[in-house]
Write a structure and sequence with these properties.
Layout: H1 39-47, H2 63-101, H3 106-140
Length: 141
Amino acid sequence: DQSINCPLLSKPPVQPLTVPSCLPAPRPGFKLPGYRPSPMDQRILVWSGRYKTPDQIPDLVSFETLDAARNKLRVKACYGMIVITILACLITVIMGKRAAGRNESLTALNMEKKARWREEAKIAREEEAAAGAVVLAEKSQ
C-alpha cells in the first residue's frame, strides 16, 4: 500500500462549524405545512364556501386549501363580469332601438353639433372683427 504525501491530494481534517454567540440560533430547515390566514384570506375562505363562518377556520390552513378557495372566488368573479357584460350589451341594443324609433342617429347628432360649432366660430370671428374695427377707429381719432 503506497501512500502519497502530496499536499494537493490530501484532505485537511474537517472541523465542526461553530456559531458565534452573537448570532441568533439557526432556524430549522423545515416549516409547518400551513399558512396563517389574514382577515382577507378568512373572508375568501368563507365566500368560497370552504367554511361557514370565520370562527370555524383553523389557525393554520394548507396552501392548497387557500389556493383552491382563491381560484373558486376568481372564477365566480369572472362569471359575474361575463353576466354584467352581457347585460350592458342588451341595454345598449335596447337603447339604440329606442333612439332609432325616435329617428335619432349618431350621424344626425354629429351634424347638428358641428353646425352649432360653426355658428359659434362665425359669431366669435364677427365679434373679433368688430372689436378690431373699434380699436382702429379709436386709434385714427
